[in-house]
Amino acid sequence: MTELGDTMKASKAPAIARAAAVLRLLGKRGVPMGVQAIARELGLVPSTCLYVLRALVAEELVAFDADTKRYTLDAGVLTLARAWLRRDQFNDLAQAPLDRLAREFGITTLGVQVFGLDHIIVTAMSQSGQNFQLSTQVGSRFPALVSATGRCIAAFGNYPVSELEPRFEHLRWDEAPSWQEWLAQVEEARLSGVAVDAGHYIAGVTVIAAPVWKGGRDDTRRPGHALVAIGIGAALRSELPRLKEALKGAARSLGEQLEG
Amino acid sequence: MTELGDTMKASKAPAIARAAAVLRLLGKRGVPMGVQAIARELGLVPSTCLYVLRALVAEELVAFDADTKRYTLDAGVLTLARAWLRRDQFNDLAQAPLDRLAREFGITTLGVQVFGLDHIIVTAMSQSGQNFQLSTQVGSRFPALVSATGRCIAAFGNYPVSELEPRFEHLRWDEAPSWQEWLAQVEEARLSGVAVDAGHYIAGVTVIAAPVWKGGRDDTRRPGHALVAIGIGAALRSELPRLKEALKGAARSLGEQLEG
DNA sequence: GAATGTTATTCTGTATATTGAATGACGGAA
DNA sequence: TTCCGTCATTCAATATACAGAATAACATTC
Predict the structure, then answer these.
(1) In chain A, residues 32-61 whose CB comes closer than 8 Å to chain B
(2) Does the pLDDT of residue B201 top 90, yes or no?
(3) Are residues A63 and A175 in the same domain?
(4) Residues A93 and A60 placed together within one structural domain of the fold
(5) Which of A71, A124, A167, B162 has a beta carbon 3.0–4.6 Å from A111's, enabling a disulfide?
(6) Checking phi first, is residue A17 left (phi over 0); if not, alpha (psi -120 to 50) or beta?
(7) Domain range for residue A16?
(8) Same domain, A158 and A232
(9) Do A121 and A244 fall into the same domain?
(10) Which positions in strand C are less than 7 Å from the protein's CB atoms?
(11) Quick one: CA torsion of B240, B245, B248, B252, rounded to 10 degrees?
């Protein structure tokens, strides 16, 4: 599409951009797809698409069913992911405090990695086993500015308002806040060091996020990660102040441990 | 290197083979690496390697530290893996019986995907929480012919002996069986429908593997998956016959459910 | 401070990956 | 059956990604 075209033309290895686009498409769709369908969707020439697919099959990143001539993701992607999980320092260090918080407060906690104003990816998760819990999966992507992490990124990223507003407009919420409300909440997050989403993103669910800076807090740089706590709003209310402090503390000490 | 050269020259999209090789290298090493080091290791020209890396960074599959000029895997690989896990039919269906077996026998169970005679990848795992357990991680790769899965693949894959022997020679075992012993064990697996490795691969540990055929057993095709049970040899002895039957049954019924 | 070994990066001609049209292969409709 | 549309795949011409040398930016060592 147009987005693919941009990343491709700039690069000196456009095949890689195409390959990544194919992998992501196959991941998103989930259903086995034929060459033509993939090519059409991505705006690729069918023959080129075929070569890309063949190369990916050779690498075991894509599986090919010779009978139906359909392609799907293959298990090779798992191997890469495992390697990443094993070596990511944030992930290693985050798991213990996330577990502790989840257990102590009976909530779900997440570690996320921030990709600018585009999106965040969940890289670690812990759930208190007791009863039902909201939960995502490791690897999930969310728009950067949504929910508590969104306010967190806005509050500590030093982005100009002109960059924030257009992105804000496109977000989906259960109970969307107004632009002015949101700005006020961002300002509050900046002052308190923790961002809160009280039922806006998902009705009845409170989300809290604290920024993590490599090597400790540094207001001149943008936080690369965040710790997130998710709980039922009603059940959380009395504990909220304590949880905010606990999350902020965990995020701070985690940041100080990062990068030696 | 030579292997990379082969897959590359055959392909009409060599950049993808290079990209995959870079990703795997970064995954294997775990440490951040510079352009030159990567290029040297893979037998690439530094400039080409640089372009590959830049493309991968643009796709968020590789992270670049501008200060140290070092590259590592990035979280994007996780997103792909998650997409794969969510829609792999074998994985979905395998988890429940794996959990059941793990709990009932107090062992670790695995679901694996077979890649010909090359290797297998662990795609699902279940551990009985009680005490210490041998365990791998989802995403791990093993040589195809090693341990119980190896005998399983040899027994049901209809491979000519001439293809098996050279690969067999290169395997690493705690207590390597002789070629003749191994062939006898393979034959036994063929007759009984389950393969057993009694302390050969890892001393003191018994591994059992049963083949899974899409759409039910079909001796004209090769099994694409297998269920594996891992337990301490001594603790398992009395239960072994029952476990073998249980694993075989689970593998059969799983195969029948696959592919609609 | 000069010299030497690194490193990452830019530059340029050419081998080649990409393209779009042509060819086959298939499946459903008439 | 024969037609038609759609599919995957091959092919030959050309735009371009790539290899290799040259450059630039470092550290380290003398």
Answers:
(1) 51-52, 54-56, 58-61
(2) yes
(3) no
(4) no
(5) A124
(6) alpha
(7) 2-78
(8) yes
(9) yes
(10) 6-11, 17-21
(11) -160
* pLDDT classification of B56: cutoffs 50, 70, 90: very high
Q: Give the number of C-alpha atoms closer than 13 A to the C-alpha of residue B24, restricted to the C-beta side.
A: 19
**pLDDT of B5 above 90:** no
Percent of chain B with pLDDT over 90: 65
CA of B134 vs chain A CAs: smallest distance (Å): 18
Structural domain ending residue among the three candidates B51, B78, B105: B78
Footprint of strand D on the protein (CB under 7 A): A 12-15, 34-37, 46-47, 50, 69-70; B 14-15, 18, 44-48, 51
Number of domains present in the structure of chain A? 2
DSSP line for A74-93:
-THHHHHHHHHHHH-HHHHH
**Claim to verify: residue B73 and residue B93 sit in the same structural domain:** no
CATH number at residue B38: 1.10.10.10
Query: Which of B207, B169, B202, B205 has its CA nearest to residue B189?
Result: B207
- Its sign, for the CA torsion A216, A222, A227, A233, is positive
User: Residue B95 belongs to a domain with what CATH number?
Assistant: 3.30.450.40
Same domain membership, residue B74 and residue B180? no
pLDDT-flagged residues of chain A (< 70) = 1-10, 128-135, 260
Is the Cα torsion angle B6, B7, B8, B11 positive or negative in sign?
Answer: positive
Give the B window 144-203 contacts with A, CB below 8 Å.
none
Out of B78, B108, B123, a domain closes at B78
Residue B106 CA to residue B108 CA, distance in Å, equals 7
Whether residues A133 and A245 fall in one domain = yes
Residue A129 has phi, psi (to 5 degrees) of -50, -30
Measure A231 CA to D19 C1' (Å). Answer: 56
Hey, are the CB atoms on B58 and A17 less than 8 Å from each other?
yes
Asked if B82 is an interface residue toward chain A (Cβ–Cβ < 8 A), one would say yes
Same domain, A22 and A132: no
